[in-house]
Design a protein that fits this description.
elongated; 24 helices; Leucine-rich Repeat Variant; mainly alpha
Amino acid sequence: MVEELRDFHTACALITIEASKSQPTNELVAKLNTSVNSTVFLFILFFIEAILLECLSDKNKQMAMQMLLFITRKITEAVLKYGLKYPIDSFEELIEKICIFYRSNKEFAIINKEVPLTVLRMISNICVLLEKPHGTPTFDCIFRILGNLISMIAEVHVFRKVLYSLNNVPVAAAIVHVCLEVFQATSRDIRSRLLAARILRRFILGAKRADYVYQIAFVLPGVLSRVHMVAVSDQNSFILIETLLIVANAVETTMNNRMFDRSQKCKDDRALTGSIEDQSIKDGTDVISVERTSECSKEAGVSYSHLPQSDIFVDENKNIIVDIVKQMLARLCSNVDFRVRMHVISCVKFLYMRCEKAFGKVLERAVEDVGTVLVDDKYERIRQEAAALLKLTRNKALKEERLRRRIRELCRTIRIQVWRDGDVRVPFQQICGIIRITKLTDLASMFTSDEKILEELVDCMVSCAVVNRSAMELVVEVDKDCKKFGK
């Protein structure tokens, strides 16, 4: 044990003192390679186990873990500078034990401010390390280390407050960049890509839990564009499902109804402050500065620091976001894997329920498009979910107008297709699907109030029946459904 302790102190001293030097010496590298071995890591792990077993007081626990964090950060810096051949599995276990400690001790009222900053430096070093070439096992191990650290930050309030602050946007951007690079790289192993996607989702959910979404709003355009490229080019079902989950979580985190209400309240407060200042200038009275108002609001417990500095709820931004989402959904609705189609319904429903105030009718059209396409799916569960999705839409006038337009387009297309090919079964199935949608969305009164659209539909079916006698049975079926609407 004495020799192991001597090796441990030698390695820590060398790493702590020499890691900041720009030029390493051959003797230093040799000493580090011989000192930092599995025995040293086993000793550190034994030390952490003693801490976790509550052999120390709370104050001593925090001091010991702070020391271990500092040593761990120096190890990562030494790895970046010197390329040490350290036992990566033991290092992963070391990080995991540290994360377990802070997760299980969330009740610590005071954590030294250097601890979150040390964790951020470690994350920054790991992101740089992931940019370098590694074998698949080593790369996955380093990525799991990053995932453990981000999960710990997302769960512990003290760490969340530091990582998701406006001062650490570069670190957040580095995390998002590394995850997207790996997720988008088709040359990577599928497990590595899925791990990158899950880490990115943890980071996004951590921002939502911290109530500081500026970082997500800052990187949202890049996330959407790159994930959209993956959704268009990739064929793996699990990857496609992850693209849907990433987009849904990223958009909902920044554009949900609660954030929209806060943004409107912030605008109203700023407009009120501006009008008071203008009136004060006219009257020649004292003016209360905006900075002073913000300080008072902070003292009162009201803060707008969690809101983006620029307004992300302008129509231009909303239209761009919805266009990208609609393109993804339109492509994935026709995917051969039923799991992908089910996730399409879940994601669009999630966004519609949580972001209705921000997007409004723009997103409602996407909901209707998805429901219209999947209501005739061959799987009963998907048909049921699509029918339930269609019932969520609320704007009846908009739905009636879109349905009229769709019926007219179908009638025109059916006439051309029947006279050209002589086949009416597929067109009539489309008409039956439209009538089912009308039933599900409570638009049956449209056929009684607008007789022209009903006549156009019947004329189309009769003209098709003249061409093909087998269509007569379908005409009778559709006619029965139409008569039900008049009752």
